[in-house]
Amino acid sequence: MQGALVVMWDGAVPGRERQMLAFSNEATEWWAKRAAEGRCSAPIFLHGSSGLSVWLVTGEEDELYQLSKDAADLIAAGRVVALNYRWEFMTVGDSSDAYFARWVGALERLGVMQSSSA
Fold first, then answer.
1. What is the C-alpha separation between 61 and 38, in angstroms, rounded?
2. pLDDT for the residue 118
3. For the chain, what is the radius of gyration of the CA atoms?
């Protein structure tokens, strides 16, 4: 199943701007190498007008999970230099459909929602 690893942050921790730039370069190189190996997509960067920055890669969910374990040191460094640094695994395409189908099934089993076929 396809997924995405999405990283978000709100700028550099004050006084750690140089470390943030160094971290950003290191992380970009690390993930670009994994993309060149065919393990994930090339990183995509989004920078918002409010200061929110988003970075993401897509790929097979199992492979992204393994890559996130391999990148544990980078993830830890991000928490030290970036404000509100957080990351999420997200579903993509057919994986999103399967994710929502599980939620609907759970809601129906719990009696929170009635089946549309009833």
1. 14
2. 52
3. 18
- Cβ atoms within 10 Å, residue 20: 20
**How many CA atoms lie less than 13 Å away from 106 in the CB half-sphere?**
6
pLDDT at 44 over 70: yes
> DSSP states of 54-110 as a string?
EEEEEEEHHHHHHHHHHTHHHHHHHHHHBTT-EEEEEE-THHHHHHHHHHHHHHHHT
**Arch. (CATH architecture) of 2-109:** 2-Layer Sandwich (3.30)
| Boundaries of every domain in the chain | 2-109
pLDDT value at 96 more than 80: no
pLDDT attached to residue 116: 65
Compute the residue count for the chain.
Answer: 118
